[in-house]
Amino acid sequence: MNNPMTYEEFQEKVGSIILTENGNCPVTPVIQMLQGKWKLQIIYELCIQSPMRFGQLRKMLEPITNTMLTNALKELEADGLVYREQYNEIPPRVEYSLTEKGRDLLPVFYAVSQWGMKYIP
Amino acid sequence: MNNPMTYEEFQEKVGSIILTENGNCPVTPVIQMLQGKWKLQIIYELCIQSPMRFGQLRKMLEPITNTMLTNALKELEADGLVYREQYNEIPPRVEYSLTEKGRDLLPVFYAVSQWGMKYIP
DNA sequence: GTACTTGGTAAGAAAAACCATACCAACGAA
DNA sequence: TTCGTTGGTATGGTTTTTCTTACCAAGTAC
């Protein structure tokens, strides 16, 4: 991918890669899953350190609010990207980590960061 | 990436890949650039066929409105992903195509679609 | 018994994204 | 002269997302 492709080469790759057999785009639902102001940053923090407590995450993501962090984590958990472990202690302790499904996004991040390093100044 | 990594292996990859020298995340701005209900679909259509006229795109993306298509295309053009060529004819003719920068997103789409094919039922 | 801790909830306001509808300019065809 | 064409713009309304603020439960330290 370092030499610019011809348009014909590009077309060929697109046809075999982006389209699945039934003609649906598998990219859109993934991007939708990662949408929202905080989700990527949460995943990013959990890449760097895992597990992390709720309060730890909140401090890293300042100025995120409880509400937003809770909602984003719930959705990430519902999508199977994040695992939540609750300990029966007082004051409460809850730890979040990436699942294998979440960690498998690494090649995506790799591709994006390659692009970003080329094009983002 | 077909065999699950250990967490240590994962950490190592993250450290060398996702972080740029200055410590900023290059993933977030890319995802932000692709956010919005229509942008990915526009890029997708332009992958399949390029160049495309405004009206052609609108028909492919039905039920998109003029306003939304115009806005999305403007932003994609401002981000350098889409090229707009206007011809001095009546009735007007305007053609849109992907730039090299836009086409270079292909590895990203590839990585995403690999993930999607593994995890999206 | 009072204050402090953590990991949240609840309710409503503000902001952003999105949509519906109407309109326009300029030329060619009828 | 009127209609149809294309690629938009303008305006205002609805819906979705995000933010603000206040509150809670249950222990522990003082």
Fold and architecture overview:
The structure is a homodimer of 121-residue chains. Chain A has 121 residues and is mainly α. The first copy, chain A, has one domain: Orthogonal Bundle (Arc Repressor Mutant, subunit A). The first copy, chain A, contains seven helices and three strands. The first copy, chain A, has helices at 7-17, 28-34, 39-48, 54-60, 66-78, 100-103, 106-119; strands spanning 52-53, 82-87, 93-98. In chain A, a hairpin with a 5-residue loop joins strand 2 and strand 3 (93-98). The radius of gyration of chain A is 18 Å and the shape is elongated. The two termini of chain A are 20 Å apart. At the A-B interface, helix 1, helix 2, helix 3, helix 6 and helix 7 of A face helix 1, helix 2, helix 3, helix 6 and helix 7 of B. The first copy, chain A, binds a DNA duplex (30 and 30 nucleotides) through helix 4 and helix 5.
Give the key terms.
7 helices, three-stranded antiparallel sheet, 55% helix, homodimer, elongated, mainly alpha
